[in-house]
Amino acid sequence: MATFADQKYISIFNHYKKNYGKKSITIALLYVCLLEFSFILALGAFFKAFATQMKMVILSNTKFWVIFALIAVFIVFKNWMRYNGKKRSILNTKSIHNTHSLSLLWLMPIGCIVIACILLQV
Asked: What keyword terms does UniProt attach to this protein (predicted)?
């Protein structure tokens, strides 16, 4: 069973493979990293805003961004190791080729970043 990120990776990979060839691998990997970054940023911003509203001082801004950077580095290495040639081939053969709207796929990380920016203003 493919995860949410796996499905989006294969969708982006299959869409860009027609036009860009081998560069589609990099585009799909960057997309999945951006998607996961934006989800983690939105989730972290929500918890930070919640803690601020509850008058709990858990993290300073500096610590928040350091933790986010460490998680981002972990996500990059995780995805780099996960979506190597063998895993991509297995996902491509097992996946049902659903055609997702490309604009919707790119709006998901943008929407999460916008939500995170709004929550970080609180």
From this structure: Membrane, Transmembrane, Transmembrane helix
